[in-house]
Specification:
The chain is an alpha/beta fold. It folds into two domains: 209 residues, Glycogen Phosphorylase B (Rossmann fold), CATH 3.40.50; 166 residues, 3-Layer(aba) Sandwich (Rossmann fold), CATH 3.40.50. Helices cover 40% and strands 17% of the residues. The strands form three sheets. The chain has an eight-stranded mixed β-sheet, sandwiched between helices.
Length: 404
């Protein structure tokens, strides 16, 4: 059995990788490779997963839907030729009898459908929470969005209902429920985004604030300066700030900004200002999420994972290309009361103090995060299901079975 995994973004690559790792663990003889449709797939290559076909980093970073002008930049950067070459690789895989696992949105899903192969889909980009919650439609949900009955549009549901689409995995229980009501055979096995994270071990008697500027340069550096403005007045408090930086970013740029904001270096990657300390790290991501009480975040996947741990987030509107007002506002709908969106950095201190001193609100946030992101272990459950549907000789021992 051979599976080609298609994904279209860094966050999607990581989610796909978690499922791939479980597939390899459950089925050692499985032949599996990846084709990242966006970016260069560092998550795959650093984990030893073979990348087949051409890859290229486009100017937009994959966010052409945020700004149509980005599409023109990508086209001039070779997007059309890259897409054509990638599609040819997918077609050859299908002709050889291989299966496809599409992870992300309609782009890898459409590739899988057009390939002619049997395929499965893990939907990471869309959730009914963008339009509704358990009580009904959101007030700010547009009529043009509600008219289709689901965040998944009719043509997307057509692709998900194909006889060759052997499995669909939605990112949360609400989305699974709506898709099932519309005739899509959707499995509710959880969200792999919450796998491989350290369990919450934050200390309620201290205040540790996680800083998440995003993972793409130069946007992350611009976001970092907004975050430093936001914590300017908080430095007088006894607070530990933990900055989780992507390994792909140049750390020196973030250190330079700290000096600009009068933070004094106090050891390797440690800084001091007034009564607060700030620590930079590029390899403590999961640990920092676990020990922090609240986050100031201008990120995508990282924000969702922190919310999934049952913790509050304050987000600041940035200038993009990813973290624009449109992106941030949509994220607040996706994550509900767990995220507070502000327009200016100077609004952060008062809001942060209000959140951490409100036990009833924190309890509500904890419950909301668990409901919207689910429990860990989804990758293993999905892998077991994929093995049984793609290879009839593999028995399905149940989604709760742990591979040995």
């Amino acid at each position: 059995m051979a599976i080609l995994c298609l994904s279209n973004g860094h966050g999607e690559d990581i989610i796909a990788l978690r499922v791939i790792e479980q597939l390899q663990r459950c089925y050692p003889n499985l032949s599996i490779a990846a084709l990242p449709l966006v970016g260069q797939g560092h998550a795959y290559s650093s984990s030893g997963v073979s990348i087949v076909g051409p890859v290229q980093q486009m100017p937009s970073g994959g966010f052409i839907y945020m700004d149509p002008r980005q599409l023109l930049r990508d086209l001039s950067g070779g997007l059309f030729g890259l897409t054509l070459a990638q599609y040819q690789v997918v077609r050859e895989h299908a002709k050889a009898g291989g299966h496809i696992l599409a992870v992300g949105d309609i782009v890898p899903l459409l590739f899988a459908f057009l390939s002619g192969a049997d395929y499965a889909f893990i939907g990471t980009a869309k959730s009914e929470y963008y339009l509704r919650d358990e009580t009904g439609w959101l007030i700010n949900a547009k009529s043009s969005e509600k008219i289709w009955g689901s965040v998944y549009l009719p043509w997307e549901r057509f692709l998900l209902s194909s006889a060759r689409c052997r499995a669909v995995f939605a990112r949360d229980s609400l989305t699974s429920e709506i898709l099932q009501s519309l005739g899509v055979g959707c499995s509710d096995l959880g969200n792999p985004m919450m796998d491989a994270l350290d369990p919450d071990c934050s200390d309620p008697n201290t205040l540790t604030v996680l800083l998440l500027p995003g993972s793409r340069s130069p946007e992350a550096q611009n976001n970092w300066k907004l975050i430093l403005q936001a914590i300017e007045q908080l430095s007088f408090e006894k607070i530990t700030f933990l900055a989780a930086l992507s390994p792909s970013l140049e750390k020196v740029a973030f250190e330079s900004s700290l000096i600009e904001f009068a933070w004094q270096q106090d050891g390797d990657s440690r800084y001091q200002k007034e009564n607060s300390q700030l620590i930079l790290s590029q390899n403590s991501y999961s640990h920092y999420l676990a020990i922090s009480n609240i986050a100031i975040a201008m990120a995508g996947t990282a924000t969702e994972q922190f919310v999934g741990l049952g913790k509050p987030v304050i987000s600041i509107v940035g200038t993009g290309p990813q973290f624009t007002y449109a992106f941030a506002e949509a994220q607040t709908r996706l994550l509900g009361c767990s995220v507070t969106l502000v327009g200016e950095p100077n609004q952060v201190p008062e809001i942060l103090k209000g959140i951490v001193n409100d036990p009833s609100f924190l309890a509500k946030i904890a419950k909301n995060g668990k409901r919207r992101l689910g429990n860990p272990g989804a990758a293993a459950r999905i892998a077991k299901h994929l093995g049984s549907i793609f290879d009839p000789t593999i028995p399905d021992y149940g989604i709760n079975t742990h591979c040995k």
